Amino acid sequence: MPSAVSLRRAARETVSGLPREFWWLWTSTLVNRLGAFVATFMVLWITLDLGGSAFYAGLVVSLHGLGGVLSSLGGGVMADRVGRRPTMLLAQLSTAASVAVLAFMRDPVAIAAVAFVVGMASNASRPAVQAMMADIVPEKDRVRAFSLNYWAINLGFAVSSTAAGFVAEVSYRAGFLVEAGMTLVCALVVFLKVPESRPPSAGKDGDGAADSVGLGTVLRDRRFMSLVGLSFLVALIFQQGFVGLPVAMGEAGFTPADYGLAVALNGVLIVALQIPVTRFIEHRNPKRLLVISSLLAGYGFGLTAFAGSVGVFALTVCVWTLAEIVNAPTQTGLVVRLSPAQGRGRYQGMYTMSWSVAALVAPLMSGFVIDRYGADWLWGLCAVVGTAAGLGYGALMRRLPGEEPVPAEVARQAGPADEGATPSDLPRQAAPGDTPADRRNPSVH
Q1: Are 383 and 113 within 8 A, CB to CB?
Q2: Architecture of domain 21-197+214-406+419-425 in CATH?
Q3: In the record, which residues are listed under signal peptide (predicted)?
Q4: Looking at the predicted structure, is the pLDDT value of residue 402 above 80?
């Protein structure tokens, strides 16, 4: 057993050396997730409190997710053109206002419209948060930084889900207003303590640098778009823990409490293991980490086909949760490494969108497969998708040796005006062990 001294030393090493600005941003993320209510309890609010149908509840949730898909790219563009800090403030203030308005809606059309706005506003800040972390944290510390941020997201979600359940017993409206208030606190932290971090060259008017990396540049970046596609596949798998698994367990005769007990392990394990596992993987080959985590995710869900008790279901949750713990910071770090400093917002927006689209597709996929072929086919499909993603990461990383010359197009875009940029700010290859969100559509933020 490790001694108390070694545990204190490990904890100190985990949190030391990161910029003060990062910790304020981390605090903002934690506060934001502590106030989460709408996304978690929207279906229950509509069906139990308002008396709406399951179909209508699903439609509203889909519109909320669609808003997030659209704002992923918009938030990324704003982060590059307007700045990280203004984008976060606008998104957080808009989220607080729209959530407060949603609390008083009763008309079905109005609820659907405002839910769409809430989805747009709440997702718009995620590319800016990820881009700012990449801006302010040195490259060697990014794996720790992204992991700590992911830990804050899950800690906040675990606490808020428990507390919000008690709030919902009293008043759903109160829960919405609590989220609006916490989001305002989050915006206040950003306004008072978080400085702008956008690279200077990206903000000079008249030199074209601000628009040097457009969405077209991102879409033409075949390496990065390959990563986005692989991220989508992995996200499809992880989403099944919250869309396919409860349906399958229900059809197998298990109660909602059984599902809650099994899936609760996901949050508990992430809070308990994210930091120590990150210390273990921090300087290891990212290619192996991404391949192994994809296989663990696919076959972790694949094993669900053999589950006949809550204990076995819980065991499968442990397997794919370990995959999530390894994949999240590693993949986020690779996104940063492949993103030019001037386009980090757009690149992060495209990456965030892969998770948002997966959140829309996963319920449709799981419902179709379970209804047409049965749950076992869904878990077998997860294993196939995980294998395909693992092979894809292996091929992608094989084409990314330790270092590669900066492409001429990017070099021209950076130009002589990019005096503050370093080679690490430009897209380059991920060296082994040299890479660092919101599993519930992360990103983030």
Answers
A1: no
A2: Up-down Bundle (1.20)
A3: none
A4: no
